[in-house]
Design a protein that fits this description.
Elements (H helix, E strand, L loop, with lengths): L10 E2 L5 H10 L4 E6 L2 E7 H9 L25 H11 L3 E5 L5 E6 L2 E3 L4 E9 L19 E2 L2 E2 H11 L2 E8 L3 H8 L8 E6 L10 H9 L7 E5 L2 E3 L3 H10 L4 E11 L3 E5 L5 E6 L2 E13 L1 H4 L10 H10 L4 E5 L4 E3 L3 H7 L3
Parallel strand pairs: 1-2, 7-10, 7-12, 10-11, 14-18
Antiparallel strand pairs: 2-3, 4-5, 5-6, 8-9, 12-17, 13-19, 14-17, 15-16
Length: 351
Amino acid sequence: MTIEGPLSNVCVGPEATVRQALEAIDRGASAIALVTDDGRLRGVITDGDIRRGLLSGAQLDSPALKFANVEPHVVRPEATRASVLDLMRSLRISEVPVVDDSGTLVGLHTLNDIVGRKRLSNIAVIMAGGKGTRLGALTKDTPKPLMTVADRTIIEWIILGLVESGITNIYVSVAYLAEKIKDHLGDGSQLGCKISYLYEDPATPLNTAGALGLLHHEVPDISEPVIVTNADLMVRYSAADLLAFHSSRNAAVTVAARPYTHQVPFGVLEIGEGRSISSVVEKPTIEFEISTGIYAVSPEALAMVPYMKPFSMPDLVKACIDDTKNVAAWPIESDWIDVGTPKDLATAKGQ
């Protein structure tokens, strides 16, 4: 098996020399070369390994495998970006190869990127401008997106999920305590993406879709659907799958939806003419499909959002329906928590 694409830049064969390993490190603009044999990972060589080898008397034409770590830390393809970053942090390393069950190399996580992953050119917008008033005193000095769950902020979990799906061009809409969010996330390089900011006036919030008007004003030539998500969600989903569904339905807006079940705590009466009761259902369960706060928005719908005026996502959905544009519902099956209250936050923390 031959390694292809960007991943091939950092790969050398088992007979490679130290010089060839250095060339691979230089090509990959990283600090590592991967030794593969018929596609299978045989070992990893860092620039530090080579430096120590040269200091001990190795030559540039010496076999590189002699200085390789033949039992490197690896992860499986299903490993999340967040878990890989935590592994890097705990081991103080900057690269982790990705191998399948047969030991075949399929990718490489680096501190700033995932080599071999399919990149998407779509933009994502994270709505992080709300005050989080339902969380009370918890958000007096800390914006809700910076609430911590499992040693990481909520907005970081959202960003890492987008990066894992291949989206690395992310805009964050900020208003309340905006500088704290910007100071925490920076330019996104530590999370493997590029983060830009859309600034709302805290005194005149633009509601849940208004920031899309800012985006359309700032980037008027957007030609692909945009992922839009609230900044207070704990959920795993594939943005790539959402975009594929959106495209297959030729939708102006696709709403990520999930079932919501509510049990009425009383007996429900069916009452007919003359106030006669025809049936009694004790504590029935009612199921709805609800919006999860995650959307795919086509450029045609993006252009419908007014600039610098309050506008909500329900407003946008209604405008599209009124204009006979297709609005679709994509089902999310994973667990989903809208971190809106102290109880929700405790649930997200597993408390």
